[in-house]
Specification:
- The protein is an alpha+beta fold and 585 residues long.
- 37% of the residues lie in helices and 20% in strands.
- Strands 2, 3, 4, 5, 8, 15 and 16 form a seven-stranded mixed beta sheet that branches. Strands 10-9-19-18-17 form a five-stranded antiparallel beta sheet, sandwiched between helices.
- Strand 17 and strand 18 form a beta hairpin.
- The radius of gyration is 35 Å and the shape is elongated.
Length: 585
């Protein structure tokens, strides 16, 4: 009996020992896994439990114009937050925050009484208010300094610059296009807390400093923009127009000096409508639609029928194809019959016999209908492609609209006739200005743009922005001839109200009806450039729905004359003896 009992006890001991050994191995393995393989994960959990993080906004980069004027910068503001576990006098905290921040008690109480590590009460609080709150020394209330976008000149170039949201990210305009350079990198404030979430007084805080954004240098010039905006506002008021758009650019490299679309809006208050509209009965979507319309840059985002300014492009196509000569004569009885349509000239009695030069000076529709027929549908569509009219310009602003044009198979004799003098299709103002630039600058298609350079806060160059150019849009001979023709329009033709003594100016007028026809609403426009022999600046004015007299040569050409009178001396363009010799064909 004894040996059998001894064997049984030995087996029992071995079994218990084996179980214990397995248990130790399991526990050891689990401990190794926790301490070695999952240590990072649990360290992060511990940090989350014992660290409280608050964000520090980075200073957004400035936007600086061609003259060195800062158009967009930052102001110091405060973000007010509360830490529930640290609040000792909740009623006093609620009362003070409601009064100083001008918030309803219900909103503040809900956030103060919420069980969370940290609760944000209000952002973009003026620094003076933040300083007053600090003086109360309220436990559990955190006041962190942040940055808010600030535009020193209010509404100036509002639809170009754009604005930022509460998170300091761009929403529209250059602010959103160049956001990656401007926004910077936010910093953080880390504080240590105990298990109850109360900050440990002696632990201090750890700061990761923010990195400021880079500065954007642009071609827009404050002074030229101001001249153009004043001229646009004057036209808007005098003609009681819906809106007025003005573009000023360098036709040789595509740099845009001014882009005005009045009425503009206040960049420092972009969510308040710039017109007196009762929004009390509107839905949120309807209110947003009104804001979106207010923010639209009509020069970039909207299309229109260009009217007679497009005759510049028709003439260039005809010269390229060789289907017209300067002294060739045409007959204008006041209309042309195209199939069953009677298409009128603006001069009811007609211009009679006139040369091609006189036809463009008089902006005669029958002359251009004849020229369009000579070009033909296939070649007209080909020149649309060659001139770049069927693709976007690539301007560095969001939401650029494309040309709305006929399919080739749908262009009949009537459509060809109306296209030839700028009707029955739509393009954007920036597209027309860019295309005319390529016709008068020797034949180079430039990319219109605002962005020039990216620099750091110390002014060191980080990146020079480059833009595509395409040669051979038209021949040099065609470009020379077009400059001569357009100079005649201002010197002796329908654009004479843009003439400035001592300056050689070229240009073209336009007056077109808005759609639908028959509403007695018009678009008056003029595009001009100077000097005519060596264009350094091109400007376009478009007046939408003017009241009273609406002819482009009468109301739009003087706008460009006014702008040129101010900016040509400013740009250092000197007066010269006017010479208008006919180019040798």
């Amino acid at each position: 009996m004894y040996p059998k009992c001894k064997t049984y006890n030995r087996k029992k001991i071995i079994l218990i020992f084996t179980c214990c050994l397995l248990g130790v191995c399991v526990l050891t393995g689990r401990l190794v896994k926790l301490m070695v393989f999952e240590s990072v994960y649990y360290q992060e959990l511990a940090d989350d439990l014992h660290e409280r993080e608050r964000s520090i906004k980075a200073a957004r980069g400035k936007i600086i114009d061609a003259s060195g004027t800062v158009l967009a910068t930052n102001r110091t503001v405060c973000t007010i937050s509360v830490v529930h576990s640290q609040i000792k006098e909740p009623e006093r905290v609620i009362e003070v925050l409601c009064r100083e921040l001008e918030l309803p008690e219900e909103t503040v109480r809900k956030r103060v009484e919420k069980y969370s590590s940290i609760e944000r009460i209000k952002t973009n609080v003026e620094k003076e208010v933040g300083d007053r709150l600090r003086a109360y020394q309220l436990e559990g209330v955190k006041i962190d300094e942040d940055f808010k976008r600030y535009y020193p000149y209010g509404s100036l170039a509002s639809k170009v610059l754009g604005f930022t949201g509460s998170d300091n990210q761009g929403i529209i305009g250059l602010e959103v296009v160049y956001d990656q350079y401007l926004q910077g990198i936010n910093g953080t404030i880390l504080t240590q807390t105990d298990a109850r979430g109360v900050e440990i007084a002696d632990a201090g805080e750890e700061r990761v400093e923010p990195v400021a954004g880079s500065d954007l240098y642009i071609s827009l010039d404050y002074n030229i923009q101001l001249y153009a905006q004043q001229a646009a506002l004057k036209a808007l008021e005098q003609k009681q127009a819906t809106y007025v758009s003005i573009l000023v650019m360098n036709p040789r490299n595509g740099e845009i000096y001014a882009c005005v679309n009045v009425p503009e809006f206040d960049l420092n208050d972009p969510f308040t409508l710039n017109v007196d509209v009762d929004t009390s009965g509107l839905t949120d979507q309807q209110k947003q639609d009104l804001l979106n319309q207010m923010w639209r840059n009509q020069s970039i985002n909207d299309t229109y029928e260009p009217g007679s300014t497009f005759k510049t492009i028709t003439a260039a196509a005809a010269l390229e194809k060789g289907v017209v000569s300067l002294n060739e004569t045409f007959s204008c009885p006041g209309f042309r019959m195209v199939e069953d349509r009677r298409i009128r000239c603006h001069k009811v009695g007609g211009h009679g016999t006139e040369t091609f030069v006189q036809g463009i000076m008089n902006s005669c529709n029958p002359v251009f209908i004849d020229i369009g027929q000579r070009i033909g549908v296939d070649d007209f569509c080909g020149y649309f492609q060659q001139f770049g009219l069927l693709s976007k310009t690539g301007v560095d602003l969001p939401g650029e609209a494309g040309t709305i044009f006929h399919k080739k198979e749908n262009i009949g004799p009537v459509e060809l006739a109306t296209i030839s003098f700028g009707q029955s299709f739509q393009i954007t103002p920036i597209q027309l200005a860019t295309t005319i630039s390529s016709i008068i600058n020797g034949g180079t298609r430039v990319t219109p743009h605002f962005g020039v350079e990216i620099r750091d806060g110390e002014g060191n160059l980080l990146k020079k922005l480059a833009y595509e150019q395409k040669e051979g849009i038209v021949s040099k001979e065609t470009s020379d001839t077009m400059r001569y023709l357009l100079e005649q329009v201002v010197a002796e033709g329908g654009g004479h109200k843009a003439y400035i003594e001592g300056y050689r100016i070229g240009g073209k007028t336009a007056t077109s009806q808005t759609l639908p026809r028959g509403t007695n609403k018009y678009i008056s426009s003029f595009v001009g450039f100077a000097p005519a022999d060596d264009p350094q600046v091109l400007a376009m004015a478009i007046i939408h729905n003017p009241q009273g007299i609406y002819y482009g040569g009468t109301i739009a050409a003087p706008v460009i004359q006014d702008i040129f009178s101010n900016i040509l001396p400013y740009l250092g363009i000197e007066k010269s003896e006017v010479v208008t010799e006919i180019p040798i064909e």
